[in-house]
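Dear support,

Our group has been running a series of protein-ligand predictions, and this particular one with flavin-adenine dinucleotide is the one our PI (initials K.S.) wants archived with full inputs and outputs. We had some confusion internally about which version of the output was final, so please treat the block below as the authoritative record. The input we submitted was:
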Amino acid sequence: MRAKGPQMAVTEPVPYAIAPSISVSSERLDETFYFRQITRGNLVLGGCGHEPVDLDKRRAYVRPKHTLRQLTQMTRVVPALGHLQIIRVWSGIEGYMEDDRPVMGPSARVPGLYYAFGFSGAGFQLGPGVGDVMAELIHTGATTTPIEAFHIARFSRRAETTAA
Ligand SMILES: Cc1cc2nc3c(=O)[nH]c(=O)nc-3n(C[C@H](O)[C@H](O)[C@H](O)COP(=O)(O)OP(=O)(O)OC[C@H]3O[C@@H](n4cnc5c(N)ncnc54)[C@H](O)[C@@H]3O)c2cc1C
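Confirmed final output from the archive:
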């Protein structure tokens, strides 16, 4: 698992008009961008990749260049929002897997140990479903949700394939 710092920004409030979350995907990480408007009117922006973090100091730092990249993308996607003032920025430390998928399920080696980590930028939205599945799995020893794709053993299988 790699530690990275996603960076966020919030604008001044403007009249509420955009209900859905809007997200732009691209092969280029610096163009991958999302935003949503909260009912109080502020727009919350994220995306355009990640910044390094300092694990010894347990700090993620906001880079002004990153905020400028996000503003550039917002202006490109919705030019009418390009004049908005940023009023706050923040970052945090997060765990990413190399395939951007979480690890969920029993340990491949230690009986009774279960994993749910590496949410790779999506832990808030996945949390309720993950909690439900993990509770079922730990309580009954099985789950009706297909989670094989998230098993920890995918990394040892990949290492074996690469070595062969
Ligand atoms: C700026 C930012 C914006 C984000 N935006 C979104 C979003 O819009 N939507 C979304 O779905 N996700 C978002 N995320 C991702 C989401 O926050 C994470 O995916 C989620 O918090 C991961 O949950 P977790 O429980 O796996 O890990 P964490 O929330 O990191 O929790 C791990 C916990 O373990 C504790 N811990 C660590 N080591 C030890 C130890 N040795 N002993 C005891 N405790 C320990 C830590 O203190 C921490 O409390 C965002 C993250 C950041 C940083």
